[in-house]
User: Fold this.
Amino acid sequence: MELIKEIKTMQKISQKEALGNKTIGFVPTMGYLHEGHLQLVEKAVEDNDTTVVSIFVNPTQFGPEEDYEEYPRDLKRDLDLLRERKVDYVFYPAVEDVYPEGYATYVQVEKGTDVLCGRSRPNHFKGVTTVVSKLFNMVRPHRAYFGQKDGQQLLIIRRMVDDLNMDIEVVACPTVREEGGLAMSSRNKYLSPEEREAALVINQTLQKAREWIEKGERDGWEVKKKMEREIKAEPLATLDYASVVSRENLQELGEIKGPIMIAIAAFIGSTRLIDNVWLEVN
Amino acid sequence: MELIKEIKTMQKISQKEALGNKTIGFVPTMGYLHEGHLQLVEKAVEDNDTTVVSIFVNPTQFGPEEDYEEYPRDLKRDLDLLRERKVDYVFYPAVEDVYPEGYATYVQVEKGTDVLCGRSRPNHFKGVTTVVSKLFNMVRPHRAYFGQKDGQQLLIIRRMVDDLNMDIEVVACPTVREEGGLAMSSRNKYLSPEEREAALVINQTLQKAREWIEKGERDGWEVKKKMEREIKAEPLATLDYASVVSRENLQELGEIKGPIMIAIAAFIGSTRLIDNVWLEVN
Assistant:
């Protein structure tokens, strides 16, 4: 396994692999890897000749009041985990190389980015689509792997890839959960034991919503209201949103129908967590 | 020479060429080709194994009051001219394939795009950088050729290519001029004989400005004022702007120094024309 820090070196490697007709699988991460990331990595290794994992805590997707500085980092542990999974290249560029002085270009999906997480995190998805575009141009992957846990992000990246005619297959992988159902996240590290227990309300509420819908509920506002009530009943939780949206355009649904996503974001103590469930509703 | 209309077909061809280690030269155009385009094409043919010319009148770079519908088109003539120059592929995608229903993604350079042409044509450069990004992903060129006549466009595309880490060499080619010095443009077709004569004032003013600076003038506002006076003295001309800007950030210069661009945009009758001169000033 090779650790690559220079963008130009990464591009040369990708070029050489492409000339050799090798497929490149790519897993972009912000590091501090958990089992969710590792399942993406294992799938990439399985599907492709060459696997590249990037570790880059991207400043442009954090708001000014958010946890960019405190975001957990542990490169040595990450490298050990990736070496075990037989990753070929770990790409670890420096912030000042990714965003040099005078940097001015942004990639933006203008639909579905101002709702759900985009409402409380303005410019978050603009930062995400910009850095993913850049990483795609550095790594030139055939397939890129994203977790379903960041459901809105996944749908927005799919839209960007389609819209900009990037010749890349976006592979979605199921959310990996801790015991009790809490979705794995690098931010779970922030939780106290009591908060970790309280955080279970998020997935439990999603599962209840799934059941309501599976039993025939088709009123999106009713499901939303009942989910809000569940989250608010947990004293350590502060609701950001609970929504039933279309997976086609991320808009909230009055009538539940088609490919949908049920999504919740809530602060548990001061830690913001998200989770979602996907359903096909006839 | 092959005419390609399907995006997927274009991508397959590019992929095959890349696998064969062939370099691709790319000239994006809106068609209605003149000698300026053809010099870009000849340079691309000379520099590369394979040359692709796209013809696509891009709706997103025209304002609502602009000449998108009336923009001159003559595919048959264009194809004849390109065949003579030994172009390998002409890429001619349909608008509804480039911007399908639900399209939502834009690439935007956020510095230097609200000045000069960007002031009177809001969203113009957003349309340009978006379509060029898309075409780059369709054609996957090693080198892309742009005319210096659209100086601001060239500098903005360079910034985008650098910022987004596109592994593409942007080649700038000198402005080609008609007799008398009028910069070649597809829009020159709109000019009556009197207007064509009047349009010479644009380049003549640029040449005067160059002389003033070469003779030692370093006050950007003074050069601007004198250029404005020259254009206003032509009864058929309506000034849009006359500016001395830095080529590094496209900002107007009070003190003329470094790599500069002297640029003018003016309506001659109802036809908007642009031209510019580049200088290195110590």
Observations:
- The mean pLDDT of chain A is 97.
- The beta strands of chain A are 2-4, 24-29, 50-55, 89-91, 105-109, 143-147, 169-173, 237-246, 258-268, 271-281.
